[in-house]
């Protein structure tokens, strides 16, 4: 089943009784159903709770082979415009009496013996009604031997256990690059009918706009382009930036993926030279030139380490260094109380990430997602964690799109072994507390960032005094010293920094046992992110 059009035809012809189209693009879903039923020469009925059940004889909207709306229809403008223009024709049949309620329409459909397709809109709102669920199960029995199908549309379908095995889901793919190009041009044509828009963009500019729209639905893409055009009253290269900002906001509202603006490249991180060297060798390996040379894009890394030592900064720095979009995956947002919803959400995240490729996908605190995915997890969360792990492993193993996954982790001992083996992630790096060389670099970096000359400080004394401190603790000490100096109206000095360091109890002391255990685990299982310091240091003690 290669595309939604073909897939829907197969589902109807194979007597699949209930088909769920989980989408916010209702008009696009209707256009697809109308095209398929026209080709199959099947009657189509549409229902909503306001109008009841009606016969639909509105003309179908042509669909391309990949399931997107055909473009270039005379005077119709963009893809979404074509859908809306056709779908705006209401079903012309009179409403059938006693079908305005969900139970009423299902009871009526059970009495119909002719082959037909029934689209029930917004039916997700009625799935907690016991009568509705029973009627749906009756439909399964009546429809399973003929070309009769119920198509349920809505943004989300939490299925009750009774129906979990009885339905088939049909996904509408995100628009491909060709469709996005057509949306851009079609939207410009439509807007020009009511506004005067000056066009100054060339072919490469249109390509940039289409690229920045990737990952959005057809509706979202058209709205983003239309708003940018109407705001500027021009169609120029700056539209690419406008639609990117609109996309960031749309993804942020989705609650699962967020665009993060990387602050700077790897040069902004003190130390971690081994990790930096590994990453520099893999830069640009998602390009056409690399592919022609037989190289496969790197899959990703797990960065394990002590808290406050720069793991999250690494994820941002990698994206900045490689000049790729950075997507932060909100792992807490994917969990849902309904059966199957969590798995569907993570699949949606994967689809969007692939559509935005090449990109960096940042998963923070990986252990909080998969720590409960062991053999006993089914008794805790109905097996959701195990199924989530299975989906993630399959995607990591099989994906073709160049999505580089950076997963940060504070405690890898709780991760399932199949997650950290080679083939899923390329490497597991361990970020320890910074050694003397790295602490010197961290001091210099943060002092310069705050308009202080490192040469005016006794860095050797500060490096010795900060033994056992994380990068975050060193930064906090510098910040506190700056506050104190500002209050006292004195320039910051080595002594003021030493005072702040001595007043801090580092994590290496408060969590000494945990850090020791983590180091022991990583010593034989992970690659050190830092090069070995030429000057050995004793175990961390309070200065």
What are the main properties of this structure?
alpha/beta, 4 domains, 15 strands, Rossmann fold, disordered C terminus, seven-stranded mixed sheet, 23 helices, 543 residues
The count of strands amounts to 15
Distance between the termini: 66 Å
Question: In the CATH classification, which architecture of the largest domain applies?
Answer: 3-Layer(aba) Sandwich
What is the fold-level CATH name, i.e. the topology of the largest domain? Rossmann fold
Uncertain regions: pLDDT < 50 for 5+ in a row?
70-90, 374-380, 538-543
Count of structural domains: 4
- Report the structural category: alpha/beta
CATH top level label of the largest domain: Alpha Beta
Order of neighbouring strands in the sheet with most strands: 9-11-12-13-10-14-15
Rg calc: 29 Å
Rounded mean pLDDT is: 83
The helix count comes to 23
Strand content: 5-15%
Largest sheet: 7 strands, mixed
Overall morphology: elongated
Helix content: 40-55%
List the helices and strands and how they pair.
Elements lengths: L3 H10 L4 E5 L3 H15 L3 E5 L3 E5 L22 H9 L14 H10 L4 E6 L8 H14 L4 E7 L13 E2 L7 H16 L5 E2 L3 H11 L4 H15 L1 E2 L2 H17 L2 E4 L12 H8 L7 H5 L7 E6 L5 H12 L3 E4 L11 H15 L3 E5 L3 H4 L7 H4 L2 H15 L4 E7 L7 H4 L6 E5 L4 H14 L9 H7 L5 H18 L5 H9 L4 H4 L1 H14 L1 E2 L15
Parallel strand pairs: 1-5, 1-6, 2-4, 4-5, 7-8, 10-13, 10-14, 11-12, 12-13, 14-15
Antiparallel strand pairs: 2-3, 9-11
Helix pairs in contact: 1-2, 2-3, 4-5, 6-7, 6-8, 7-9, 8-9, 13-16, 18-19, 18-20, 19-21, 20-21
